[in-house]
From TrEMBL:
This is DUF6891 domain-containing protein. It comes from Kribbella koreensis. Residues 11-183 form the DUF6891 domain. Pfam families: DUF6891.
């Protein structure tokens, strides 16, 4: 990276953003490119995004591909996907990698006879990439948070534990301990 045009700190921050965007495994190349282009234009206006962004993306993709060579066949995100699929089959609306709770609520409100909602945001995934903890929000069909002792919460926790994903309910959300090893296709 042309750090003289960007600066060491900004270069590190842009690499970090590229890392979480790519490792999330949810954003496609166009979305990653758009987010990084916006960041470069805002944080490094002297740099050429047409040159810098592909370099950042390629570097992040190469790093995750190298790491993936040592990952187990079934990763924590694979097990999470199985839990979410099962919840979906039970009538729970599942929203992955959404921008915010408003978008998740819109999906819930458009569903026919939902049993509840489980969702997580893009920033929740970025936190999981860096810190190994994903926050799942669980709502009733009326958008109220679940509470201890309620069957919807108990069911979600039981499914997570069955798939060897340690999880605890804390302050209105489920904190899932997860090693974010999601295979990426960009």
């Amino acid at each position: 990276m042309a750090e003289q045009a960007v600066g060491e700190r900004t270069a590190r921050e842009l690499r970090g953003l590229a890392r979480v965007l790519v490792r999330s495994g949810y954003a496609d190349r166009a979305a990653v490119t758009a987010a990084l282009t916006e960041a470069v234009q805002e944080d490094a206006p002297a740099a050429d995004p047409a040159v810098l962004v592909p370099e950042l993306v390629d570097e992040a993709v190469a790093a995750v591909a190298a790491d993936a060579a040592d990952w187990p066949e079934t990763t924590d995100p694979d097990r999470l996907d199985a839990v979410l699929a099962e919840l979906g089959s039970l009538g729970v609306v599942v929203v992955r990698y959404t921008s915010d709770h408003h978008a998740a609520r819109a999906v819930l409100e458009s569903a026919a006879d939902p049993k509840g909602l489980v969702f997580f945001t893009d920033t929740d995934v970025w936190h999981a990439v860096d810190f190994g903890m994903l926050e799942l929000k669980v709502w009733h069909p009326d958008t109220a948070n679940v509470a201890p002792g309620e069957s919807l919460l108990d069911d979600v926790l039981a499914l997570l534990h069955e798939r060897d994903l340690p999880a605890v309910f804390d302050e209105g959300r489920i904190e899932v301990t997860i090693d974010w090893q999601r295979r990426v296709q960009l």
